[in-house]
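Allow me, if you will, to draw on your knowledge of protein folds for a short while. I have a record of one protein: its chain in single-letter code and its fold written as C-alpha cells. Could you please explain, in whatever detail you think fit, how the C-alpha cells follow from the sequence? The record follows directly beneath this note:
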Amino acid sequence: MKYSSKVCFSSLRKRMSQEDKSDMRLLISLSVIEMITCFLLVSTSAFGYSFSKVTIILLIIAFLILMRNKQVKMGFDNLKIMVPPFKDVNLTLVTSRFASGFSILLSSSMPVIDSIETMRHLLGNTYVEKQMEVTVSELKRGQGIAKSLETIDVFPSMLCEMITVGEQTGN
C-alpha cells in the first residue's frame, strides 16, 4: 500500500485541532512519533528495496565513525571478550597472537618487559591492551610472568601454567 505525506499529515492536523491545549506535551510527543512513522512509511514505499540498502550503508558508516573513538572501541572490544558467542573466538585469537609473538620476541633475546610491551600493542584488542598495562607494572615490581598474567584474568589458565613451567625450567 502506498502512503503519501498528505494522508499522514492530514491525520496529524485533525488530531491537533481536536486536542486540548493542556495536553500539548503529549500531543507533541505523539506527533513526533507519528511524523517519524509516516516518514518511514512514505520513504520505504517510495524507495522500496534501495532504501534498505542505503540504511544499511549508513549504519555501517556510522559504526566505523564511532569506532574511531577510543572509549567506544574499548567498550566494543570489552564486549567481544565478555559476550559468550564471541568470547571463545576472541580469547583464542588474542591468546595465540600473544603466545606466538611472545615466543618469537623472547627467542630473539629481547627482554621480557620489552617483549610484553611490544605484544601489548599487537594483540588487536584495546581492552586486553589496557589490561596488559597491569601485567607490565607487575613485572616491573618483580612478579613472575605467569603470576602477572594471571592477575588480569584474560588468558586461559593453561597458558599461565605453561609459562610457569617454562619459568621453573628456564626454557
